[in-house]
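Appendix B: complex inputs.
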Amino acid sequence: MIKNNARRLFLLIFFLGPAVIVYTIFSVYPLLATMSLSTFTADQSGVRHFVGLDNYILLVIDKDWRDPFWNAFLNNIWFFIIHMLVQNPIGIAIAGLLSLPRLKFRATYRTLIFTPTMLSVVIIGFSWNLILSPLWGISEGFLKFLGLGSLFQPWLGLESSALITIGLISVWQFVGIPLMLIYAALLNVPSELVDAARIDGLSHLRIFFSVKLPLIAPTIGLVSILTFVGNFNAFDLVYSIKGALAGPNFSTDLLGTFFYRTFFGNQLQLGSPTMGATIATAMFLIILIGVCVYLYGIQRRLERHSF
Amino acid sequence: MGKLRLLKIALAATTLAATMAAAHAGNLKIESWRNDDADIWNSKIIPAFNKSHPDIKVEFAPTAPKEYNAALNARLAGGTAGDLITCRPFDASLELFNKGNLAPLNDLKGMANFSDVAKSAWTTDDGKTTFCLPMASVIHGFMYNKDALKKVGASEPKTMEEFYALLEKLKKDGTYVPLVLGTADQWESATMGFQNIGPNYWKGEEGRNALIKGTQKLTDAPYVATFKELAKWGPYLGSGYQAQTYPDSQNLFSLGKAAIYAAGSWDISTFRAQGNVPLGAFKAPPPAGQSDCYISDHTDIGIGLNAASKNAADARVFLDWMATSEFAEIFANSLPGFFPLSNAKITVKDDVAATFLSWRGECKSTIRNSYQILSRGTPNLENELWNVSAQVINAKMSPEDATKQLQAGLAKWYKPQQ
Amino acid sequence: MKSKFSTGLIHIFLISYSLIAVLPILLVVMNSFKVRKAIFGTPLAFPTAETFSLVGYVKVLGNANIGFYFFNSMSVTLISMAAVLLFGAMAAWALAEYRFKGSDVLALFLSIGIMVPIRLGSISILNMMVSFDLVNTRLALILVYTAQGLPMAIFILSEFISQIPRDLRDAARCDGVPEIAIFFQVIAPLLRPAIATVAVFTVVPIWNDLWFPLLLAPGNDTQTITLGIQQFIGQYITDWNSVLAALSVAIIPVLLIYLIFSRQLISGLTAGAVK
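Resulting structure:
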């Protein structure tokens, strides 16, 4: 029995050891170090003093921290809503069409639509900046071609439309992920169920909504939570298009850019690692709360179907 | 089992190779945000240095300006930064010095070639220690396409009134975009707009020092007047200027589609490299009736010594060389628009750069008013300036509200303004 | 008749969306082959005999060590991927197969990494790499990327492993095959379809990452292609020939890799990796 236990322990260490070690040293430890940094403040010569939760109080109470924090938080919620309202429905719709029986060119469509997901934001940010730029005239010319020239606006530069525009660019880029996950789930729906519904005379549309969609609800839940986590960590796209100051008038500021600006500074603004760490920890808590709400509030109600 | 062993061996071999490839160093490395200048450094400046010092190898390792502060701070914290560090003016570098990242350079022989004004951007508040060698200043003004002015039969404007008359003419003519400035990158509005024309209103150094002493407020007339001018620019800018980025602005002008470009002198080298627009330049015109003029002649670049450098002796040799007139001459003429700060008499060959330089004789020089001391707190004055300048030009904020926001932010943490 | 009509509609919808997905990329690639005036003058036109130009490519390929950067990116990405897959599969197997005290807690611990971007810990990572003397090595990147990719890989692979029929391993156990061999000889080969899925979630972010190369390996010898291209763009920002050519050079290898993997991707997903 003892020998058996030792053997079991060895197996656990053998299988889990490498992953746990690499992950703990290079991911968990640095994150914990960041969090502990949030309880310190630095004086002029860079010496750090422990201040407990003062930084958090500052972040919530002081107008010059509170306002940008809430602004970034609300923008982030908008950003998430745009993805939930546009990205995921499009992903579901296209996945539904692609999973129809006897559809031609299925693989080609899939490949093409997934392509933007593969590209780096360096490429995406620069390309869309060009396309929407009033200077190059691509989008303006296109709208004129459709007879809609008067609709053109410098969307990325207006306070009212910049965030939505960046949100839609992000949707364009990442729609491939919900598409693939939902497509895979749809293919796993047992064909007997679909055939039975077909014999009952249900249309494709009815089958999709009343048979398939309920069955893939857990996948849609998973997609939603991945979207949430991704959106609240988003940084790159705003940074590459609008810079760290996320203009105009901070209308595109997300928690990620607010963190970056605070942590590393900007032009004449000096970086504050301690306040940056405070924001990072706040972001982590926000994401954690969101994930918990999902795990305990939503996922439990979405029964898992095994096929 | 065999497959695993193979994989492990492959892994070990590759990591070994990876580690070995990295293990060679030992020469001077320069950190800089001037990635535009990489070609010039590699083809002109470093070879010139190596003529007299063949045994010291120098590598110019720039990081894009957007990431420079962040990447440099991280590398300094990790001890991997280069030996020589290009210094931003004032507080960003002062902080590095206070944290012990930059070495004091008072004992550097070459430092004698610089005036106190040149050194002020890289000297401690008590005036005792200088920690970066001044490299260059940049001058604000307007560049123009000579063809465009010829087309409407106009000459360089001497006053703000003439400036608007010219813009109006250009707009009526319609061939060229009258004025190039984009508000998408925000800093363009603050730097090429507010800091460019403002010194004429707040009387250069007089107003700048008054703000620091607290005897003037940002809500005072000169600052409101400056923003009132910016508020008039919108109708003359290119369509969709709210989404126009800095590279867009550069392209708009260098492709010959625009007439007047709100400039920093550093753009000269870009436009020379791009081609064929016949360039001219005029200084920010003072308001009618004002006889004296002021220009923004901003100490923008210095270079310091990483306190942790293992090649400090060689690095000091290089710094001393950078203080010579030989360096000043090469630098000024390979990068027209950057004006060396040393006392050495040099001739600037580029005619537009020479025009910019000639304003030093006609007007009083000042530096950007947000740079010294006033951007130390939260909210950060420079960030606020970017934001409100862009909003004023976008007609989203009134000049009065802009100055109120700036003053409220400054008064929050800066004692002399309370 | 009605069915034909609706099939037509479906194709029109899919074609239009495919165009939306691909046209912006094609626009960049297409204009990279034109002279500067034509890029601005007629951005929507194909290059013609007069407007065709390779000047951007000449500059990119002549100026940057593209081949070398490409090799760096390749080696970092592939080794990280191999490590993520191997370590991830082993951990996922242990979590799914051997229930033990605290296995739920460990699973939760391992999934924190999905929620928090590792970038938040940049400064400590850099300090650590300095003390291990790993700065400016590809190994530093590999270690960070492995740590970054593991949580998602374990998450996906656990689901995948739990779908493998029990009889397979039980039969092997009855034959007296040792546990380690069961994993490598019976289970590991079955995981092949999951490679593509994990690849999409780990390889793409690694290949496209700009941050850690900038921080941990900015040296000329260790620069990745994404960083190299970014620096190049920064340097020639107003020279659109070069910028568009550089963007195209960065796009093409990713597309090639994707085309190779795309068949496996779907079979991996449908084999039940993520539901």
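Chain C has two domains: 2-55, 58-273.
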